[in-house]
Amino acid sequence: MAFPIFKTDRGNSGVEPAEGDGIPLLGRVYNECILPAAIYETKGETTMKKLLLIVTTFLLSLWVRADVTVTDQVLQKGLFLSSDCKVGKKKKVAAECLCKADIHYPAISGLENNSAQSQLNQKLKTTAESGKCEGKPIIVAEQTTQNSADSNFEVTFRSDSILAIAVQSYSYGSGAAHGLESVEGIIISKKMGQVLSVNDIFGGNIAQVNQSIYDQLKSRDDIFADDVEKLKGKFVLDNQCNSCTLLVAKEGVKVIFMAYAVAPFSSGMPEVIIPKEYIADAAIIESMDKK
Description:
By secondary structure, the protein is an alpha+beta fold. The protein has a domain at 9-64. Helix content is 27%, strand content 31%. Strands 5-3-4-6-7-8-9 form a 7-stranded mixed sheet. It has a 3-stranded antiparallel sheet with strand order 12-13-14. The longest helix has 29 residues, at 37-65.
């Protein structure tokens, strides 16, 4: 059956039927035309299907991006009494006998390689255990302590294929001039389910990477010039980052040096950026391009 389409009076080139003329008004007014109801509904259904497709695609993309999760695990928290110390009268304990712990570590789930994921999680837990307070847990009221052990983490970079985590640790021992801070960068391939090594990240560009690190450090006024000269050409070597760690940033790969490695304690942990042209891992490059 053919449905007649009539223009409205605003752009009338024909005669609009009136009620009682015997011609059913099967259309609906849409912009400047009267559209047949059957056609209008078909277009509406098509529009709705397109909208549902867009929403479904968006939700699916969110699910894909959120498939790998990182959860906080508490390994040790509270006060701990050293094994060679005792509780004195009125439940007082010497400050040097106590250690205050607040140690967390990341647990990763959703990687495609379950075996590699289990090994990675075990490594993360073992690393956290190495920084625990020694002794037995103890509860004392308003007790000061001179020893502490803290560990936490932060997801510093996330994409569909790359996950980067900074595991931050701090420890202080009784009588020390100051506490000691450190960070370990973990760059994970979601697909392989494993931590990327120095060689995975830089490939055959090691010489260029070492030169870039040297040039950036030499331009600073707060470094140990002699130590930087000794490390020249060896900052990254034998698949290791010497006295440093790596993290992914949107502008390149960040190299973070530990305290005292190339600069005095007052300078903190110096950082340099390795530009994208020296990065060999395609997934990292693609991830940075999307940021």
